[in-house]
Amino acid sequence: MSRHLAGSRVVLAGVAGLGALTFATPVLAGECPAGKLKPNAQQMVDTKPVGVTDVTLGAIDLGKQPAHIEGRELRFRKLTIEPGGIVPWHSHDDRPALIFVQQGEIVEYASNCADPIVHKAGDIRPEVYGTSHWWKNLGKETVILYVGDVRKDPNDHHM
Q: Distance between CA 93 and CA 108 in Å, rounded?
């Protein structure tokens, strides 16, 4: 089996990214806690990727599939985030994704949550329209994320 086919059969998961810097204590449920979900809760943080490796494991042109979704690509990636690493602020308004945390623990700063959100190994995070965020590895262990997303622009290299 080709590496591309093998990669596309792995559980799809999506990565997420960066929101405004905050010093609030992170929540531990893997999602925004009750009462903390609100629009524009975090502002955009302008930073570059730090300590992040992003490898595309496979991709499928959805225009060539029976669904005929022209101009879209189903992409599957592995992100490795070193301790102190940052996945910079990005939006999912035009690029839905699922992120699977395979190893470690990472904190998400989402535009629509007043508190940071902690994601642990085994968590899956949907990233959909209205999601803008950034992520940071605050721990001492390397974090591994598997990301499946539907990308429109093949030149869009946002994480």
A: 17
Secondary structure E strands in the chain? 50-61, 73-91, 97-103, 105-110, 117-120, 124-127, 132-136, 143-151
Q: Which runs of consecutive H residues, i.e. helices, occur in 33-140?
A: none
Per-residue pLDDT tens for 86-105?
999 999 999 999 999 999 99
Render pLDDT for 148-157 as a digit per residue (tens, 0 to 9).
999 987 766 6
First to last CA, the chain: 27
- Give the Cα separation of 71 and 153 in Å (integer): 8
Closest Cα partner for 21 from 71, 98, 89?
89
